[in-house]
Write a structure and sequence with these properties.
139 residues, alpha+beta, seven-stranded mixed sheet
């Protein structure tokens, strides 16, 4: 148990250090954060190019591997959305306390948006990422 806590602490510190220095693992494909809403969600999933994923939901932490079909579907959706051509922000004119905020990084390009301002092309990507979060990697 003590060994597992040390590993978790090291992993958290490594992730924090990478975010502070602006660097990331060369194997990272997608980082997705969904926060807000009535329930005050704060979900984050990081998916590596090999399908390994780490999901953090408030105090819970899960690791799993996405199957090849899901990875192919995810990459196809990003391609269809022409993600690299999307602006960095799509925000509604009026903020709402019950809106979700979404921050998606794919191949080094980050897009931040909120409910009511999500570009149409991005919805399929968000839907799949939300399914991955809700399933915790289980089919």
């Amino acid at each position: 148990m003590k060994h597992q806590i040390h590993i978790i602490v090291i992993a958290v510190l490594a992730g924090w250090l990478a975010s502070c220095t602006g660097t990331s693992s060369s194997g990272m494909l997608v980082e997705y954060r969904r926060s807000g809403g009535f329930a005050g969600l704060d979900d984050r999933v990081v998916i590596q190019v090999n399908g390994q994923a780490t999901l953090t939901r408030k105090a819970e932490h899960y690791e799993f591997v996405l199957d090849r079909d899901t990875m192919n579907q995810l990459q196809a959706l990003f391609d269809d959305a022409e993600f690299s051509k999307l602006r960095r922000e799509y925000l509604p004119p009026r903020q709402g306390s019950d809106l979700f905020e979404y921050v998606v990084t794919y191949n080094g390009h980050t897009v931040r948006t909120m409910d009511t301002a999500v570009p149409e092309a991005l919805w399929p990507v968000l839907e799949l990422l939300n399914q991955i979060i809700e399933s915790g990697g289980k089919p």
